[in-house]
Amino acid sequence: MRSMSKNQNLVTQKNSGMTTNIILTIIVVIVAVAVIGGVLLFNRSGDSGGGNASGGPTVAADVLRKPDSNVLTEAPDGKVTVVEFLDYQCSSCRAYYEGLTKKIEQDYAGKVTFVTRNYPLEMHALAQPAARAAEAAALQGKYKEMYHAIFDNYESWAQDGQQLSSDKNRANAQFEKFAQQIGLDMAKYRQDLNSPQVQQKIDADIADGQKAGVSGTPTIFINGKQFQPESGTQSFTELNKQFRQQLDQELNK
Known about the structure:
Elements: H1 2-42, H2 61-64, E1 70-73, E2 81-86, H3 91-107, E3 113-118, H4 127-138, H5 143-152, H6 154-158, E4 159-160, E5 163-164, H7 168-181, H8 186-193, H9 196-211, E6 219-222, E7 225-226, H10 236-251
Parallel strand pairs: 2-3
Antiparallel strand pairs: 1-3, 2-6, 4-5, 6-7
Helix pairs in contact: 3-10, 4-5, 4-7, 4-8, 4-9
């Protein structure tokens, strides 16, 4: 009996050791993925790959901004203009919104002009519906409010658990809810949502993005130069510092 008990203890110890090794391996893998993911987030221009390298040619102002482009903040002197090409369902765009652009919009209000352009990627089923909702709101002078509602409530329409959603009915129901909350004329909103005017605006943004060399989202330009995080950037603290340094350099010229 003692011999059997000893063998059982050995098996238990062996299994316990194997379990511990497996757990440690999983932890190492998770940490590695997190680190690599952070590096990738800050060293690419979006979900579909990179864009122009930082320091590339200056993109013409009339390509980056049109008279009807949506503006989050406007600087009276027009000295510095930030233009972001975005996809509302792009997880990197949402991360940039939470970690960078929302703060820039607040902290540099009145100092820089912040323009947003549509660049919905084909891989995201709800990118076009979200862009149409934002542009329909813009026709009633409520673009900024819808822009924030869409990003602030990202999980409610863009995700299905940990995966990106493709449920257009759920997304459109959420966009309608946002439209009501920001006080839109709902009859006009529903009419504009799938109108040729709205779709033409989105298509024109995409065309300008392609002219500017945009190949992924988010892609951001500061006075015509594409902003690209420095190699090795792994946190939004570092990203904010780099972005603000470039803004301040332009403001102080």
